[in-house]
Amino acid sequence: MVPYDDADARKLMDEVQQEYVRRYGEPDISPMDPAEFAPPRGLFLVGYEDGTPVATGAWRAHDGPPPALLPGDAELKRMYVARTARGRGYARAVLAELERTAAEAGRLRAVLETGTEQPEAIALYRSSGYRDMQKYGLYKDDERSLCLAKSLVD
Q1: Alpha-carbon gap, residue 110 to 79, rounded angstroms
Q2: For residue 119, what pLDDT is reported?
Q3: I need a labelling partner for 65 at 20 to 30 A (CA). Which of 85, 113, 121, 140 fits?
Q4: What's residue 115's pLDDT?
Q5: With b meaning 16 or more CB within 10 Å and e meaning fewer, what string describes 64-99?
């Protein structure tokens, strides 16, 4: 766990923004307040390989607005694995830790917005039990947007 503005977190977030530019032609402009990712209502993770930051992911508490977002939601953000570290299970490990910590913090459901130009991410989420949900957020009217959710309780 690191603060949102940690140097390693910033490095990886800059890389993911470049990935968005490559895939969509522009960076993600979703509002991101660093305070939202501080415990107990959020968390920011960086994964390392031999001391090098290679993976990131975060969650922040959301409690609406309905009907898409519900009380007890944890929105996943900034899931990313550096190109040189892909295919080694880092994304799945970060996702599992985000789900675990969100559930531990009392969050009931994990939600996320991804895009059709990220088939690897979609495959990860679907294979981890995420299902389609009503679109929400800044990109809800974008045909390339896809929103997914997974219950964090049995």
Answers
A1: 13
A2: 96
A3: 121
A4: 94
A5: eeeebbbebbbbbbbbbbbeebeeeebbeebbebbb
Predicted confidence (pLDDT) per residue in 99-129, tens digit: 999 999 999 999 999 999 999 999 999 999 9
How long a stretch of residues is the chain? Answer: 154
Rounded Cα distance, 128 and 150, in Å: 9
Residue 4, phi then psi, degrees to nearest 5? -55, -35
CB neighbours of residue 59 within 10 Å: 29
In angstroms, the CA 21 to CA 110 distance is: 26
**Region of residue 107 (phi > 0: left; psi between -120 and 50: alpha; otherwise: beta):** beta
- The highest-level CATH class for domain 7-151 is alpha beta
Task: Return all residues near 138 (Cβ < 8 A) that are at least 6 apart.
Answer: 29, 30, 31
Q: Domain residues of the chain, as ranges?
A: 7-151
What are the two backbone dihedrals, phi and then psi, of residue 86, each rounded to the nearest 5 degrees? Answer: -70, 155
How much is the mean pLDDT over the chain?
Answer: 95
The span from the CA of 87 to the CA of 104, in Å, is 28
90-104 helix and 119-127 helix, angle to the nearest 10 degrees: 50
pLDDT of the residue at 80: 96
